Structure prediction request, 253 residues.
Amino acid sequence: MQNIHQTACRKLVKHFKLYNELFNPQQRRLLRETTVQRRTSFSGKMAPRNSSRNLRVLLDMDGVLADFEGQFLKRFREKYPHDPFVPLDERSGFYVTKQYYALGQDIGTKAFGIYEEKGFFLDLQPIDGAIEAAREMAEMEGVDVYICTSPIKKYTHCVVEKYQWLDKHLGKEWMERMILTRDKTVINGDLLIDDKPNITGGMNPPKWQHVLFTSYHNRDVVLQDGQIRLDGWLPHSRWRDILEQKRQEISEQ
Ligand code: T3P
Ligand code: MG
Prediction:
C-alpha cells in the first residue's frame, strides 16, 4: 500500500516539475515567442509574436475581395442600356436592388435578375490589392484567415461560383478556408472584415470585431460601437496595423 502511495507521489512530483517548466510565466513567454515566429520572410512591421493563440481573421467576399458593385452596374447597363441606373458615386444603402426599386418597380425587378444570372459571381473582378493582401495575410505567422461569405437566397449559381471564384483567384488550397453562411454572427473569429454596415443574426454580440470595409454604398455610414473602418487594400492600407492591434488585445486577455 505504502509502495503505491510512494509511486503516486513520485509521479505527481514529476508532473509538477514538467508543468512548472512549461507553464511558469517566463517559460510560457519563451514558448510563445518561439512557436509563433513568422513563417515567411514578410518584411512588414509587425511586432514580435507574443500571443498564445492565432489571430482569426474572417474575410468577406463581395465588396471586400470581389467587386460586386462594379460588376452589377456594368451588367445592368449592358443589358438595359435605355433604363435609368445608379452611378457608383450615388450608391447608398447596402442592398443595390433597394435603390433600383426606388427608380421603378420594373427597374428593381430587372436589378434583381442581374445577380441571379449564371456567371455573375464567377465573373466578379477582384478588388484592387485584395488578392495580394489575402495571400500576405494567410502567410503571416500566428494568423488564420478564413473567407466568410453569404450566398444569395437564390443559390443555384451563387454557391458554386463563389467556390470557383476562390479557386480561380486564390487557388485550391483556399477551399479549406471557405465558410458559407447566411449568419456570420455565429462564426467564431477575432476580426470580420466586411462591407455590410449592420451585420445581425443569432449571436448578439458576435465574437468578432467588425472592420467595416469601405465601399461606395457605405462611405457615409457612421460607425457603430466597436466598429473600425478599413479604406481599401492599397497602397497605404491600415490592415496590417489593425491585425497587429487585435493581436495585442488578444495576447493581453
Ligand atoms: P458577401 O457575404 O460575400 O458580402 O447577400 C449575399 C451576398 O451577395 C453577400 O456576399 C453580399 C452580396 N450582395 C451585395 O454585396 N449587395 C447586394 O445588394 C446584394 C443583394 C448582395
Ligand atoms: Mg460583402
Q: What stands out?
A: The mean pLDDT is 86. The chain has three domains: 2-33, 55-66+126-251, 68-114. The CA atoms of residues 176 and 243 lie 21 Å apart. The helical segments are 2-23, 25-35, 68-79, 96-101, 105-116, 130-139, 158-169, 239-252.
